[in-house]
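Hey, resending since the last one bounced:
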Amino acid sequence: MDINITPKYIGYARKSSEDNKERQAASLPDQKYILEGLKSRHNLNLIEILEESQSAHRAGRPIFNSMLDRIEIGEVNAILVWHPNRLARNMSEGGRIIDLMDYGKLVEIRTPQRVYQNSPEDKFMLSLEFSISKKDSDDKSIVVKRGLDKKCREGWRPGEAPFGYLNDIYTVGGQRKIFTDKERLPFVKKIFELFLDGTSVREIQRIAGDEWHLISRRRKRMGGKPLSLSNLYVILNDSFYYGRFEYPEGSGNWFDNHTSIDQAVSEEMFNQVQIKLGNRSQYKLKHHQYAYTAMMKCGYCGSGIVAEEKNQVICSFCRYKFSITKNNKDKCTRCGRRIEEMAKPVILHYEYYRCGRKKKVSPPCNQRGLEVHKLEKLIDWKLCEIEISPLFMDWAIRQINKMNEGEIDFREETIQDIKRAYDDCRIEMDNLLKLKISPTNKDGSLLSDERYKEENGKLEKKLKEIEKQLKSVDERMIQSNKDIAEKFDFATTARKRFATGDPKTRRDIFEGLGSHLKLLNKEVYCDSPEYMFVIKKMKKAEPTIAEIVAPNLQSVRAKEMEALWASNSVLLRSRESHPA
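The structure tokens again:
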């Protein structure tokens, strides 16, 4: 540094607003105290100390930029700072500081640990400090994103909890949960109900303030105020209240709330509110999963069956029914009345399956769509055709087990025959080896090396096949019994599980009805497994096998029903009645 240049210092203290990422950094008062100490200890010409609370991960800090501008015009020429990472955690701002040194406008950066001047060694060390800070920021960003992703998968939305819920402030960071605000969450449901009943958002605001005296939860610097119009629209648009959230917003990544979080409204009510909000709705139904897509083909043209949704509204003023489309989301197409202004409009939601019409046929495919509830009725009817009672299932499995007991002797004889073949093969291999090493075979006249290798290879292969056969005897019997139990269990429980299960359960049951599922003329067709035809034949021969016996009558009816089944020559008597 030129000794004729007198350093004029400007102090810079920065604390990131993201406190959870920089807990190791000293607070602003601490940094200021250290800089004042450096000034006094070294008798420095310190013009002033600038303070800023903003992250340095990205460029754009206003106070930092104004400080560099003052250095550019020569107002100051040196910086006093607690640590280089207070100046820059990104390469663009770090590069600008190095450039100011290269041009001689910044002659010195002083910290409590060392002094950086305009020399190659000092600029290298300063660049290294900036690079380390950048690497540290990048590593923290990866760790934080991974932690947030894990938290979302577990059902805990990061950030501030919506109105009606409370953040856990006592648990360590990364493991904090969301609790129900017992005082405010019931009012959230009332807000949704009033809006669907035709109450305007402004009127809801008045009711919430004047009648309910509803205020936001008080915090250190904010809260404790009545709900504003914008607050109410945020509530009406937030899918968290029915059990799902998107994080980050606009990313299309949807997660289910943790099961311990109470839901304020149902999904159906929430979707009706979004329809009524029209263009004001910020909610996007991108996450909807249809239960029966990519399973069926059109029975006419062979195209895939696709799912569609339609929403319609019956205007409460002119009684006209109109569709909600991309170009018309918020008003009646006849009278022009906004949906939000309608008192109790009838909102209709349809989900149906239709041919995708991807394949060109002549004449063109004219198959019409089938509503989901009608499709599920068809599936339920097919399940009804094979439904049997638990009582019959237990009896049938006992009969099959008895039949299998009669085959035990045969199976044991088979196993003994296989074991004898195994022992004979081992003896042959031993005899072959004895002949090979016999003194009379020194010259290989009785058994050459090539001949021994060939014969021994054949015996080893035969031995492995026998071992495999021995192992498969019991496995076949175990698998056969397992298949029988699974098929009877499907016939017994599938209909009930289909009626009460979630979309995945219903999809799996529909798939279990058979292969090559087709939709033709609003009917479902498939290639059913053989055991389903057997069960249908059983039910036709003995209708009582589908009777669901009440628990309090089972002990009385069991013997009577089993006697009926045992007397029927069709049930479990022929080979085709064995569903394995």
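The longest strand covers residues 305-314.

Sorry for the duplicate.
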